[in-house]
Amino acid sequence: MNLNITNHPLITHKISLMRKTDTGSKDFRELAEEISTLMCYEVTRDLPLDDIEIETPITKTTAKMVSKKMAVVPILRAGLGMVDGIVNLIPNIKVGHIGLYRDPDTLEPVEYYCKLPSDIEERDVFLVDPMLATGGSASAAITFLKNRGVKTIRSVHLIAAPEGVERLNKEHPDVEIYCAALDEKLNDHGYIVPGLGDAGDRIFGTK
Ligand code: PRP
Ligand code: URA
User: Fold this and answer.
1) Whose CA is nearest to atom 4 of ligand 2?
2) How far is CA 97 from CA 42, 80, 137, 145, in A?
3) Residue among 28, 75, 108, 131 to mutate when testing ligand 2 (max atoms within 8 A of CB)
4) 199 lines ligand 2 (CB under 6 A)
5) What are the C-alpha distances in Å from 39 to residues 155, 169, 184?
6) Burial of 55 (C-beta count, 10 Å sphere; 0-12/13-18/19+)
7) Closest Cα to residue 175, out of 146, 152, 147?
């Protein structure tokens, strides 16, 4: 299975706090950002380093630096809760947006917005969305990015269901999936069990 679980004790602890019903929107948002920052460290582990000539106060030298162009693309709405966590570590990263919502009856994604950096095809993309449930939303967003010429995509989630991982692996075997927790299953309404409920509503306090 093409899946990386970043199961560091601090990340797991923070995910458990997010799961709790009595965690309010302010704490939920802060936790989503903190976990995204911690995950970013793992997600970027294999970025290439280039040799760059620099001058220290002592001498000229060849130093290793990341010059890869990158973009973070949240799936609206809930993905917005992960953007600042990534930007904290990669301040110059460009941000694109893809708006999708799950039709509550069919659970299929419906697209309502898209705005990407004009040179998106030259960038490694971190697609972010807290929940990978059926995988429909992430799969549609990845197809969309590939149609725009993007070659390298990492799909980054706080919590994933086995059903979503299986679907992404089948439909996009080239895409590396990252999550902080792999949960048990989906319930009859397409919610992750035990999960954390509706991520968008909890981030934005809409329910
Ligand atoms: C949630 C979540 C994902 C999607 C996951 O969004 O943020 O985008 O569901 O489900 P899937 O893997 O079955 O497609 P939702 O549709 O609730 O929209 P929201 O972000 O606006 O709340
Ligand atoms: N979307 C959510 O926000 N939560 C789930 O459990 C599944 C989809």
Assistant:
1) 198
2) 23, 9, 13, 11
3) 131
4) yes
5) 12, 20, 21
6) exposed
7) 152
- Regarding pTM above 0.90, the answer is yes
Which sequence positions are flagged as catalytic? 102, 106, 198, 201
| Ligand 2 geometric centre to CA of 60 (Å) | 52
Does 133 sit in the ligand 2 pocket, CB within 6 Å?
yes
Query: What is the 8-class DSSP label of residue 128?
Result: E
Exposed, middle or buried by CB within 10 Å (0-12, 13-18, 19+), for 207?
exposed
Q: Which residue type sits at 189?
A: H
pLDDT digits (tens, 9 = 90+) for 83-99: 999 999 999 999 999 99
**6-38: pLDDT as tens digits:** 989 999 999 999 999 999 999 999 999 999 999
Q: From atom 18 of ligand 1, which residue's Cα is the shortest distance away?
A: 101
Does the C-beta of 139 come closer than 6 Å to ligand 1?
no
Q: Count other C-beta atoms under 10 Å from residue 10's C-beta.
A: 10
